[in-house]
Amino acid sequence: MKRHFPMAVWYGGGRTRATMVRHPWPGAADEWRRDLANIKECGFNTVRCWVDWAASEPRPGAYRFDAQDLVMDLAREMGLQVIIQLYLDSAPDWLLDEFPDSAYVSQGGDRIISQGSPGYCYDHPGVRRKAEEFMTALAAHVKDREEFFGWDLWSEPHVVQWAYFDYLPQPAVFCYCHYTVRRFREWLKAKYGTIDALNEAWYRTFSSWDVVDAPRFISLMTYTDFIDWQEFILDKIAEDLAWRARTVKAVDPGHVVTSHSDIPCIMTLPMLGQGAPDDWRMAKVVDIWGTSFYPKHVGAKETNDPSLRSAMLCSTRSACASVGSPFWLGELQGGHGYVGSFAINATAQDEAEWTWQPISHGAKGLCFYAWYPMTRGYESAGFGLADLDGIPSERAKVAGAAAKVVSANMDLFLNAKPPKADVAILYNVFANIMWTAMREKSTYIPSRSLAGAYRPLFEENIPADYVHVEEIEAGALARYKVLYMPFSLMITRKAAQRIAGFVRDGGTVVAEARTGWNDEVGVCGEAVPGFGLAQVFGCREVGARKVDDVVKLVVTATLDRVPCVRCGDELGGYGIRQVLEVTEPTAEVVATFDDGTPAVVANRYGKGLAVLAGTFLSFAYETRRHAGTGRFLASFARSADVARPVIVEAAAPGGTVEARVLQAGLGTSDERQLLFVFNHSAEPLDARFLVALGGSGGGDGAGGGRGGRDAGGPGSGNEADEAASATSGAGAAGATGAGAAISASAEDLVTSEKVDVTVRDGRAELKKRLGGGEIWVVKIAVG
């Protein structure tokens, strides 16, 4: 496979918007050549065109790839690589003529006749066969082209997509056609083995597999069937992507196959949008998995927040890292957010941040959506890097300038990887499944809980990974020192055992309200938290009530192992107020609600520490930003002496200066690091950066004291003490060898100017007066 870092622009030939294709007309070559010349001149190295099944096979077996051929011919002339986006969902109408029973069917029995989308059900054997024939013909057509880089086989996967079924009861759930129900039965057979085992699990009396139907609603007594249906949908979407990959790879094994979600799964529910994928499952079946990234789409007030953007990037990276593969952005917003009547401008400053922040997380490709604004449909006039007349905007120039830097240093950007994290945040897909099974339709509490656990770490510039519950079952916690469990209403019994072992062996766990309420089949244990976790946390629930407002807590005790938890600090929770009873002599109440009842309990279990809050602290911090809550949550990572690859000192609130590094050749004579700095303030400020060299990155050395948070931030005390703690911590890391002399040089990759750097105690020290909104990209060479 080619070694290439695509800095790509979506372009399908002229002003035609994806997923539509317009084949060349007289004079098209001149117009398209002009567009590609503009793309090249801006600095991009790749174009991403698309293939729409309906336009490319208008009659059975009659293939037309004229538009793609011309784009590829012209790209080769310009020295551009090409990615092909496959759209099977825009399926030809003749499929319904050949296969009248191939329509998608909703839970209410409504047949969906495609109107350009969403196509027809791939569980129908005839539709699947025709799709395989089309993919095979396309792969054979392009595989030998020198400018061809690779495939994206499915844009923003769902069971059905690109259509809005507003006339159906919401959420509209698919697919209940005969063929998908039959496939579900086979999935159930693989899970349960016998019809008797299924009957016991579902509390049913089916006489045979032939009468088992897919659940369409939730019953009062049990929702095990609905849990199974949701997990089946997750597996189905992943298996359908694997089918596409196998089909293309059978003809074209030499090119990379990728796909990307519409939004990272930490922000969704499995039933959302007619079936949403699990990033960890999807990453297993393609060479590169990715996400779309639209910070100013709908709801831009939150999604353009630097910490929330970072959390989404972190989760996608984590999913791919779990299988040892890279991640990229299949779509990156290139223009104004126009969606229906919603509208918000995108600026050149936005585009610069949206470009460099994913790269700083280790993304190995960006695909800007799109060159031209959308010319038709629900998003018309939105999302273009160029203006409607094809003239490059300032956004295009800014993104293209970054692309030039990446292309000029491509080997370094391809080789450099994020540093190891010592902190994990649990992504518990089963909790999200249970949330839906409890008739909850909003993603807001689960998603903002997951984002809120990340925010205090973002503000400290502490690396973290999101870890899937199935990774925990497989023993992944051995890599970490701290685990946050912000939304874990449901937990598998095996994961609960692993978490208990993690704490017993010295790890720290911080969990929140109603953790371990149900197991993976929807059954309560002997206590809440269940499945042995009550012993781990040293407490149990004896009551709970829903609260639709902020819940006030006060810290009433300090912890020897976490001295930065300060008595008298006020915290904010949300959503639920759990009544906790201490059950173990090793446990103590750390914080109380305003009525004096226990709100947070900490238990010394084995060699470790387990903390349970009886409310949603992470959600409250994400949505309310109460400084005490953020300081409290971050204190457990700081006290565990977790890795700090880069320490920031700046007289600004935490999160104002975002700094992260990518590392290559760590600990060798060819060590190189990339330092990315973002000033998220409109005001200039002075900052100092201490970058760990040779893999030294160990904690801030404060031993749970006051060092670590950026000076002047919500968690800071005296600024001089903060700086001293950070510096002494760098020396304490000492992984570069006792007395080893290290030298380093640094260069601003954007300006090519030399940057002053000194090395002390295993860390490179750099200083910078950052302009308002400035982004600083520096290469540090060791030796």
Descriptive report:
The chain has 783 residues and is α/β, with parallel strands linked by helices. It is 32% helix and 23% strand. The protein contains 22 helices and 30 strands. The strands form six sheets. It has a nine-stranded mixed sheet with strand order 14-13-15-16-21-20-19-17-18, with helices on both faces. α9 (279-283) links the parallel β7 and β8 (288-293). α12 (348-360) runs parallel beside α13 (394-408) and α16 (444-460) crosses α20. The longest helix is centred in the first third of the chain and has 28 residues, at 224-251. It is globular.
Keywords:
783 residues, alpha/beta, nine-stranded mixed beta sheet, 32% helix
Strand content: 15-25%
Kindly state the number of beta strands: 30
What helical percentage do the residues reach? Answer: 25-40%
Structural class label: alpha/beta
Read across the widest sheet, the strand sequence of neighbours is 14-13-15-16-21-20-19-17-18
What oligomeric assembly is this protein in? single chain
Stretches where pLDDT is under 50 for at least 5 consecutive residues are 700-739
Shape: globular
Q: Biggest sheet, open or closed, and with what strands and sense?
A: 9 strands, mixed
From the alpha carbons, calculate the radius of gyration and give it in angstroms.
27 Å
Summed up, the helix count is 22
Mean pLDDT: 92
Distance between the termini: 32 Å
